[in-house]
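A quick aside before the break. I want you to see a complete sequence-to-structure record at least once, exactly as it would be stored in a machine-readable document. Don't worry about memorizing anything.
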Amino acid sequence: MKRTFQLKVIENCAECTNQPVGSFCEFTPDLLEALDEVSHKMTLPPGAILFVEGQTPRGIFIVCSGRVNLSTTSREGKILILKSAEIGQVLGLSATVSDTGYETTAEAATTCQVTFIDKKHFLGFMRSHTDVAFHTAQCLSHDYRSAYLDIHDLILTRSSAGELAKLLLSQRVNIDEDADTCATLPMTHEEMARRIGASRETVTRLLTTLRRKRLIRLDGPRLVIRNRTALEALAV
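That is the input. The structure line, written in tokens, reads:
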């Protein structure tokens, strides 16, 4: 590995140590070598666009490091961040397999590295290796379930406060010795607003209210959930 933009750059998939359990590229060493032969890696700065909503699919992108936001834009130009993709997740899979336009816009939220496989090579790779086809089916099934749950939440119309509580609870956490639940919060108020479909001012006001009620504490980028039970009740 070498460093670019203060990022550990992965030279080839076979030597990658970033693969979390359940990641798309959790293949055998032989398959990882074959993956290297049909793909190439890119290091991108924050704000770089991988693909745009409605664009004809060029192929898939696997997130090797960093974080990528997936968003959609209304006719009025309002941007809503649907989710963030992290290490091991694959982007553009459904569009590439079905040969339809990308459903979302993918933008690097942080400095990141991605592995790109063009459509022709990926489809051939999937046909030649049953493990790849199986992983593809698993990812598509996961995306379907995630979309179903999002639609379910939309129909039930949670309040902005409830949506924010759900977003804060979704952050990966660890437990401090004092039993407070802690996580690093990598999002700005603007990004949180786009995630829950509210204004930045609304998010700032809601965070202030949650702090005043002693449900959370924010120490810079560090989120401390002081009353998880109350926050979970708000997210219902």
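Two observations worth writing down. Confidence is low (pLDDT under 50) at residues 1-5. The chain has two domains: 2-156, 160-235. We'll return to this after the break.
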